[in-house]
Amino acid sequence: MTRMKMLDIMAIGRTHQGMVRSNNEDSFCVDKELGLFMVADGMGGHASGEVASRMAVEIIKETFEKSLKDKDVPLVGRMDPGLSAEANRLLSSIRFANRAIFEMSQKGPEFYGMGTTLVGLLAQADHMIQVHVGDSRIYRFRSGQVTQLTEDHSLVLHQVKLGLLTEDEARASRAKNVITRAIGVLRDVEVDLQMHEWVEGDTYVLCSDGLSDLLSADEIGQLLESTGTDLGASGDALIQMALDRGGHDNVTVVLVRLGKMKHRAGLIRGTIGRIFRGHAEA
Fold it and tell me: What domains can be seen in the chain, in order of their start residue?
């Protein structure tokens, strides 16, 4: 039995171009077989942001899956001995995607400056591996409480940390969407990686800033509470609320909930029982 077969994974993704934009530069990945979930928010003119976000999620997924099947696939960047093989291979896949997007950005003026944010989760048997670059976010809804798990790589947050802006001033700043880190802008990228134990009933919300700019963490929690266990209804409601508030940007959300496959223990006990009964009858 594979690790992923031991998990009961519920996950959905929703995206909308919004009420102002003519195209959608967000991309997402929902792969329950791999246990891999991502949201990417592209940037750059001439639709190159759309290219960057799509390249990011596709290359990361394909490269990570290939590295799991073939352990001899070389890693991009230094392997961290303090991390699991899966975490190192995920980081390597992100670095590979970063270089591919960076190299594409050098091929013509229509691609110059292209890049994308990225948030991702990789489900493990007892924990989540979280990766993060830029200002897309991950929230966790647990026991009626919402926690923001990521910290924006943004200019205004940096200014808040330096004491140059208050949090209220940061929220109102025209520079609040200026990010300090992105996939594909430089040849090398620094990726934030954290690990969190998950608890049955947790719901993870991965979203672009088209959602988080318009809904507070508390509002996200209240909406998840009101829609209950129906992740599809939750995703649709989150998108609609952002659209109702102006939808000034592309809006994307991925919702993930994990549980243990409860029937497995009973299945094993039943199989063992049949084996022993068979021997007794023989």
Answer: 4-281 (3.60.40.10)
